[in-house]
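If your schedule permits, I should be very grateful for your opinion on a structural question. I have a record of one protein: its chain in single-letter code and its fold written as discrete structure tokens. Kindly check, if you would, that the fold set down in the tokens agrees with what the sequence suggests. I remain grateful for any guidance, and I place the record below:

***
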Amino acid sequence: MTDNNPYIFDLILKDLKIESWIDFKSKKVVLKLFKPLTGLDYKIYVLHTNNKVLYVGTTKRSIKNRLNGGLNADGKNGYHGYKWKNLNTIKILIWNFKDLDKEKIENIEAELVYIIRKETGRWPELQNEIHFNNHYQNTGNSLAILMYKQITNING
């Protein structure tokens, strides 16, 4: 990981758009996202509300572009977008991975989703799909355990 700590924001949503990105620690509105959030490294992101994980996803795109794609989807090509897109607020945690490939990222994502299921008794509430493999299992599992601890240590 580029940084062991996630970037955490409260997202304010209105009319299927992100109206504001509020930094979780400082409570200040972030007017413009920055690298690595805008870069092309792989990222894993978790959507969280009311102490529940709703969704775990990955992207290599800018996180803003990835989220906007899921918020704007209307089903024309069979993709209806995020199931959480009608919420008013949601917390997002984003981890950036500078030197990992898609296979390793998918392993970490799957390990994290499995840990959520194991610890809570439920899959992420609005998870649509998951990709998994065994090619990075020990390291992927260790990273997922760390990420799960970070998720459970935030309020909200």
